[in-house]
TrEMBL record:
Modification type 4-aspartylphosphate: residues: 1040, 1184
Name the record gives this protein: histidine kinase
Keyword Cell membrane (UniProt): no
Single GO term (MF): phosphorelay sensor kinase activity
UniProt-listed PANTHER family: HYBRID SIGNAL TRANSDUCTION HISTIDINE KINASE J
Source species of the chain: Ancylomarina subtilis
Annotated ranges, domain Response regulatory: 991-1106, 1134-1251
Enzyme Commission code(s) on record: 2.7.13.3
Amino acid sequence: MNLPISKFRDWKIKSRLFLLTVVSIISIILLGFLANFFFQSSRVLTLFMNADRIHNNTFNNGLQDYYKYIALNDKTYYISSLKKIKEANTMAYTFSSIDEHIQNLSRKDFIALFYSAFPSSHHPEEKIVNILYDRLKLLNKINPQRLKENQAIAKYGYNLGMHIQKHIENHKDGEINFELLNDINELKTHFGDFAKETEQISNNVNTALIYIIGFFILFIAIFISSISYIINRSISKPAAILAKSFKLLNKGIPQKKLNYKSNSELGILTQSFNEIQFGFTRIIHNIQKVSEGDYTAKLKPRSKQDEFTHTFNRIVDQLKASHIKNEETNWFRTGLNQLNKKLRGDQEISEVANNALQFTIKFLNAELGALYIYDEGDEVFNLKAAYGLPDKNQFKFIKKGHGLVGSITDSTEIKHIKDLPKDYFTIFSGTGEISPKEILLIPLVFNNHLWGVMELASIQEFTLQKIKFLETANETITVNIASSIARERLENLLRTTQDQANELQVQQEELRVANEELEEHTKILTENEKRLQVQQEELRVANEELEERSNQLELQKNEIEKQNQNLSQTHDELELKAKELEQASQYKSDFLANMSHELRTPLNSLLILSGMLAKNKKGNLTQSDIESAEIIHKSGKDLLQLINEVLDLSKIEAGKMTVEFAPTNAEEIKQEIMLDFKHQAEKKKLALSVEIDKNIPKTFISDKQRLSQIIKNLLSNAIKFTTKGSITVSFDKLDDKTALMRTDLDPSQALSISITDTGVGIPDDKKEAIFEAFQQADGSTSRKYGGTGLGLSISKELAYMLGGEIHLESKIDQGSTFTIIIPEKPNHESEIKHEVIRKMPPAENEKPKDVEIELSVPTQFIDDDRYSDSNKALVLLIHPEKEKAKKLLHLINQNDFKAVAAADIKSAIALAETYQPSSVIISSILLLTDGEEKLELLKNNPLTSNLPLHVVSPVDGLKEDEKDQLTTVNAVDFDSAMNEINKQLFSNSKHILIVEDNANTRQVINLLLQQNDVQIDEAVSGTEALTKIKSKQYDCIILDLGLPDFSGHELLKKLTALNIRIPNTIIYTGKELSREKHRELSKYTNSIILKGLKSDERLMDEVSLFLHHVSIKNPQSQSLHNGTLDESIFKGKKILVVDDEIRNIFALGKILEDKDMEVLEAENGKIALEVLKENNNIDLILMDVMMPEMDGYTAIEHIRKTPKIKDIPVICTTAKAMKEDYDKAIAHGANDYLSKPIDENKLFSMLKIWLYN
């Protein structure tokens, strides 16, 4: 069993357990043999006498082992020491009680005891032991005292031995104490004494033998226990280490290699763990390399079935490919961005060609190139730019079909020519020449139209990546070339159109003169015909006499009829020419409209992208870049303004421009002027002032929008042409002596608005010309000031449409004065009345029988606040007595309000229409007769129906729902009325009740109205709504008519019957209303909205009107529209953008992707349908109208006919913005309509509505 530990480790676990079993069996067998050996050894009588020696040696050996244990701290010596000392003590103990053994034991037992007390080496033969037994027994009989003395000595030695044994067992600090030393010395003395008693050793043989046997048994037990312990440790300790290592490895903590080497199961398990640990460490190392960008770090497969290593290597390959693709994409996008930057701006064709060619050559590391522009008329390619090309190799032009360049007209693909002959041509420098290896021929095609060819040559290979870049950049270069050519053509067309217009005017004048001459000829011919008829009558009477002359007259008659036919034919020709002239005018309008559409399309992407860049949401642009983007955005807006001006002029000439007359306030126009132009004037250090003469009426009847447009046009010119001094706008009554061009304009009933500047002035010979379209005072190519020359022409026509005219006074270098003269009230009264009625609330244009809509302001009752400039809230005061009305006005002013006063209901309604008050205070005196009927008048009028109404002084018999509070006319109680008005008008928190049984509709309305200062309650039935209105005061109710328990109309009736004040009410219903039902509901509200297209926008407008009616007069109020919907609604939505313009797709895609939306693209309706087939989870479609192959209208019709995609919302986007375009889009199935250039805010507002729905 003395195997080395390293070999023992190699044992299998079952072998180790088998060893333990074998050792145990062998130990038992050995114990038997030893017992037998001791009994056989007792044959020698002297064994008993050697007992002392055996005892002494054993004890001394035990002490020696103990000393070794102290010195070496080896546990084995400690065990051996205890063992030997105990053995010696056992021998001593046996001998010390031998007399008892002799007396109490039989011979056989004694022999057994004798043999068991001594080691086997000292066992005598049984016969000798029998003799020893007899002798001891005889000695006990003869001299028991002697035996007892010997036993006492042995007992004393035994006690000393036990004392020393206990010291050794209890003493564990490795040192021998003095007490132990004394005991050992005393024991040694005792051994000397005991040597004298050697005769008694034989008597103690049996005891010694028993002691030795006992000691041996103990030794065997300890030995087996030790082996068991060693085997257990050899298994459990490595297993515990492995378990701990596996747990740490499972947690991702790398471990060191385990050094347990063995061929056993544990060794094999340890080796497997080390292999797993090594693989884990190698994986971590490779992953770190990959994370640092080293994609060569791969794992070597350990077997064919090593799926992990193969998967890991595939991931590394994919990451490497993705990295390479990202680098290529970045290179690709950088090139496109730099190319766009190079080609940005209004460049001539030569600049575009040169910039495009130089950038492409440098970016692709080519050595030379050329760019040709194709002339369709001459069918020739003209050289516009060259790079690195010797003069001898330059062809200034190439005919179609000649050479490689000329033969590319029928191809749209890039031609790649390799392995050029050495003598093809050379690329030279100052030090030598080299032949190119490859050339590329790139056809510049856009919209299936060839615009030119670019040729590149290089001494290096043109990679597939470079060719793909050219395929993409091709469109950008071509679009810019096409835009530059189109810009030149447009300028030529505009000049040609202007010339044609002048020619048409001349022809029109000639036709007018010819027509007048023909009319005169017709009159003469008619008179001649009458004379001939008289002559015929005379000839008939004298028929017989003048028969021959009759024949002649018949011939003359035929001739006259022929002439009449010729005149009729001439008249028809004149009508045809007039129609042709009208058609030519229509062609011009159509041309301008279509051209504006073509210009709006690129403007759309220009404005969107430049606006995005100017906002710099990603923060990656410099301040200079932002300013450049802002300049681009502003220039785009200026160009859009130019297009709008051209369209306005076209509308005016075509007679399609309309005006809407309404009460107009000069003070409001003044505020707009200061707001729009004050900053511009201050920037040029000009003094800007607006003066309103006190004699002009507070309001006059005109189209405020068109009048403001005229004033702003003239003011813009004044600021443009004035470098120093001042600009003054004056509103005055027209001087009666003013000479007018219009005969229908009455000077006494007219206003003059003068814009006076101290600018450059206008020469006398240019004063008439500047009012013509496209004319300017300075029309030279070196003119100082820009502009189109349309503004004054449009202003002149608009002034005429308003019933007025424009006068001009100007001196060179002194300044100019433009005077707008308009009537206070236009003559075409019927048209005004029609416009006013059209704007009335939806009650079929019918008014209550006692209400009259008047455009004039009633006579001032008392001196009130109607001309005050204060921003305080306005109260409408109705009182028939002047003194009491003045007192109430004073109290209202003390409460920080202003007021306008009326003596009766009729005048009050007229004041409400003009000044739009925020609250009404009415005297109870007016209500003493027909009080309820008068209150009904206020309630039925749209401008007073939703105003808080307060009746002052007690009144009997009035309905409670018509008054908020009843007080007496004194200052104390009146203050509480004012406080109530304050509470209603200026409360920071607005309360809205939504009465709607449909949860989705309630949620949509909540989203529309959601903001910090609006509190929204909901009711799903009429009963719940009635309870809420009883318990809480609301500013506005949004009411659906179709409720589960009773209708919304019945709810309004119940509130009236219960004398509960009805708040401002908006009826928001999907139910079609009859004329009678409409009129009945109008008693409660003038806001009835049918659910459907754009109903959400109308709802927002109506709520804004109710809740923010005071906001105009209270600057502290907040706008309802400040609230915005949660933009998280955009995240993850999938939008399909359909447009044949790649620039529009790119621009829209950018702003949509910024909102975390996924964008799909299609360049026409046909492709859009294919995309929809493959992606049936698209949330919304932005559809252009004008596209090749399949237009937007056709595509929408196909979508609506396809069941799976028919419910996808579709928003039309087009540069055409006429009402008929909107109606056409809706008729074809579109959900909504958005005109180009697309406004980003309008787009996202519209998307929020349709994406939520």
